[in-house]
């Protein structure tokens, strides 16, 4: 029973961090969309969102690329995502870590985006 409570507590703390992050970052626009990231135990996905129009401009998923989630594969996913962003004419984004702590896979993804010419 305590395992279920631990999971609920973990998820509620992430939800609190998520609200705090969303409150402090700027809204995404067509010129500078909000890049949000989702990490499960198996896969990593990211999408560029135009909050003004309410549409997803570019998305990438590690499952479609045949990769699981780790730091090395996060770099590969970020490289593909940067290619897709550049093809859509997007050079600057607002990074939304979606309540995850900025380390490990999330930090590797963000650093790889910077290395591929996307300004965060």
Layout of strands and helices, then pairs:
Layout: H1 2-24, E1 34-39, E2 44-50, E3 55-61, H2 62-65, H3 71-87, E4 94-96, H4 105-115
Task: Name the features.
alpha+beta; Nucleotidyltransferase, domain 5; Ribosomal_L18; 4 helices; 4-stranded mixed β-sheet; ribosomal protein; 4 strands; structural constituent of ribosome; 120 residues
- Mean pLDDT metric: 90
- Spatial order of the strands in the main sheet? 3-2-1-4
- Sequence of secondary-structure elements: HEEEHHEH
Structural class: alpha+beta
The helical percent reads 40-55%
Distance between the termini: 42 Å
The amount of beta strand, in percent, is 15-25%
Low-confidence stretches: none
Plain-language structure description:
Keywords: Ribonucleoprotein, Ribosomal protein, RNA-binding, rRNA-binding. This is Large ribosomal subunit protein uL18. It comes from Halarcobacter ebronensis. The chain has 120 residues and is an alpha+beta fold. The protein has one domain: 2-Layer Sandwich (Nucleotidyltransferase, domain 5). It is 46% helix and 19% strand. The protein is built from four helices and four strands; from the N terminus they run αβββααβα. The chain has helices at residues 2-24, 62-65, 71-87, 105-115, and strands at residues 34-39, 44-50, 55-61, 94-96. Strands 3-2-1-4 form a four-stranded mixed beta sheet. Helix 3 packs parallel to helix 4. The longest helix has 23 residues, at 2-24. The model has no long low-confidence stretch (mean pLDDT 90).
């Amino acid at each position: 029973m305590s395992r279920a409570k631990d999971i609920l507590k973990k998820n509620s703390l992430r939800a609190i961090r998520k609200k705090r992050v969303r409150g402090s970052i700027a809204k995404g626009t067509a010129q500078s969309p909000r890049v949000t990231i989702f990490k499960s135990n198996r896969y990593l996905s990211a999408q560029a969102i135009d909050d003004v129009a309410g549409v997803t401009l570019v998305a990438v998923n590690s499952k479609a690329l045949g990769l699981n989630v780790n730091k090395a594969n996060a770099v590969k996913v970020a490289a593909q995502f940067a290619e897709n962003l550049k093809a859509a004419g997007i050079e600057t984004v607002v990074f939304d870590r979606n309540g995850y702590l900025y380390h490990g896979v999330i930090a590797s993804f963000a650093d790889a985006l910077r290395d591929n010419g996307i300004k965060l």
